[in-house]
Specification:
Layout lengths: L3 H31 L6 H27 L9 H21 L7 H20 L1
């Protein structure tokens, strides 16, 4: 059982990770929409930040669910799996095309579609 002081610290950490996760997703989608010609390295940094903060959020939620099962909802592992794999796919596409002088339109469209679908899964599911 987590103590009250530690619980507050964990909740603050979770809130900070969530804010960083939102910033990362905004940077990912915004970076893609801002430049279609060449992949901005900020897109990859944003995708990596989204992945790291997302995994951190899942880890914190596991500890909260274990300590306070009546206050926190169980983690949907399938949702986490989908969102993680979508971000990994975005990162793979990005790293495969970051040094190319021109980003192929099809790759750009797939990256945008994956980003939007990741956001949709987070909101709707």
């Amino acid at each position: 059982m987590i103590g009250i002081g530690i619980l507050k610290a964990v909740e603050i950490t979770r809130d900070l990770l969530l804010i960083l996760h939102f910033i990362a997703m905004a940077g990912l989608l915004g970076g893609l929409l801002a430049s279609q010609a060449k992949l901005n390295k900020g897109v990859l940094h944003s995708a990596l930040l989204a992945l790291v903060t997302g995994l951190g959020l899942v880890g914190i939620r596991y500890s909260l669910v274990d300590s306070y099962p009546d206050q926190y909802e169980e983690i949907d592992n399938l949702k986490t799996w989908f969102k993680t794999n979508i971000l990994v796919a975005i990162l793979i596409l990005g790293y495969m095309n970051v040094k190319k002088p021109k980003l192929p339109k099809s790759v750009w469209l797939v990256m945008v579609a994956l980003s939007v679908s990741n956001i949709a899964i987070a909101v709707v599911w």
